Amino acid sequence: MLMAISPRRKFVNALMLSLSGLCTLIVISVLFFILGYLLFHGARSLNLQFLTSLPKPSGETGGGMANAIVGSFKVLLVATSIGVPLGFLAGVYLAEYSGKTFAFLFRYVVDLLNGVPSIVIGIIAYAVVVRPMKHYSALAGGVALGIMMIPIAVRTTEEFLRSVPNSLREGSLALGATKAKTIFAVVVPAAISGLISGLMLNLARVAGETAPLLFTALGNMFWSRGWMQPIATLPVMIYNYAISPEEDLHQQAWAAGFVLLALVLAVNVTAKMIIMRGPAASRR
Amino acid sequence: MATPRQQLVKEVDLPSAREYEAPKDSSRWKLGVKNLNFYYGSFQALHNIGIDIARNKITAFIGPSGCGKSTFLRTMNRMNETVRNTRVEGEILLDGENILHMDVTSLRRRVGMVFQKSNPFPKTIFDNVAYGLRVNGVRNQSVVQEAVEKSLERAALWTEVKDQLNKPASALSGGQQQRLCIARALAVEPEVLLLDEPCSALDPIATRKIEELLFEIKSLTTIVIVTHNMQQAARLADYTGFFLMGKLLEFDDTRKIFQNPSVKETEDYVTGRFG
After folding, report:
1. Is residue A9 part of a domain?
2. Per-residue pLDDT tens for A35-77?
3. Parent domain of A92
4. Does the beta-carbon distance from A176 to B119 stay under 8 Å?
5. Is A283 on the interface with B (CB under 8 A)?
6. Does any CB of chain B come closer than 8 Å to the CB of residue A103?
7. Does a structural domain hold residue A243?
8. Which pLDDT does position A219 carry in this prediction?
9. CATH assignment of the domain containing A154
10. In this complex, do B121 and A181 lie within 8 Å of one another by their Cβ atoms?
11. For chain A, how many structural domains are there in total?
């Protein structure tokens, strides 16, 4: 027996629709609100000088964050060269070699590592790199961020390698290729667009990390010489400027926030475009 | 595992695999299979298979889905080893040498395989065909070049792709991709070529092209083909084997199998009464 839809049910239905629609709208606008807010407060400091010159000594206005922008890239380079090879090869093992039980345990361990708070990873990097070397350094910051990159590198590698159809592996093995040759000459190239975009998303994720850099990379008001010296990074610079009493530095912190966010967004969008245009997408 | 059709014939007491006499003239035979049993875990997929496969002939295996014909094909280049928890018993002799004790990569270079669904690598047409040579250590560019051209010619694909060797293989049509996979397998000059339902995803015209080229290349290599298509077996094969529920019920000249089979189940299958 069918019941007529009561006015109350109609009302609840309409209410839920508009409520969830409203929340969707708010979620979308959060990103644009953040972008707009950063731009609003940082716009006056955001100019070419900001991107190309060093910070001015305390008390003077003007100056920029060129050293922090370059510094962030340097620390990320160290982090990538530590975290990505480790995570990639472990992901290869997980996807291509490991048995089911071990894979389950390993995946669980990796997820736990992913859950370790970044400040804790910072302390570890402080203890094992900064203390023995008696130096804050780009290397120490890179180690901290590198550790943070491992879990995502493992899981994205595993996921994208698993999405490669087994028929390709069989085709390669059937020609007398070894398993290792098959993985590196056929499976990895087949997944390459996914792997690259995974790497980029991973980079974008750690680029904004501040806590582990506070007592590893420390910060620096000048160009950092080499990899063994304290180095300025955008997130730490934002932190230091934001808690300073000077209004001009506040504005620069906003501008730095905008630069950081713009870089992260650019990397994200590029990664998405690589995924969508990759061979994996065209096959489906 | 078992389809309803198979369950129907399960009641019948199947005769065990026919015993074959030892080949008198060993140069006639490329492969000899003796007492072959194969297990997926505790499930026995092949029961006591014994067969000799003739050199430079086309041997076809037919039978309903799940009868073990593909499994049998995949034991001959040990492709089943990529599946976990499998076990093989018995002997498969390639020119008298037991393949189960061979180095698996050199075995697969000698015994090539073409799969049901074409599986070109995400590389250029040229690199697809060159792959087998390169993984087997051929570095000389002119040797590779020549082998690629020769293989594509043998696979009846050269004229269609000679101007686009650097295009991705994925740009080719389904039938062309399957011929590319055949060219890729031929490039390493295998002594045996195994084909696992190579035409099942292709239209009749593409199928005919592949059948013609298989006919051409049987002078170069021994061909073993698994097919669902009985007409294909009848057209192509010199010898045909009929598998049912993991047993090789009958193996004989193709003409005999299709015109005057000696086992009732074979007759039922080839006349379309089941399967």
Report:
1. no
2. 899 888 888 788 888 888 888 877 777 788 889 999 999 999 9
3. 65-233+268-283
4. no
5. yes
6. no
7. no
8. 82
9. 1.10.3720.10
10. no
11. 1
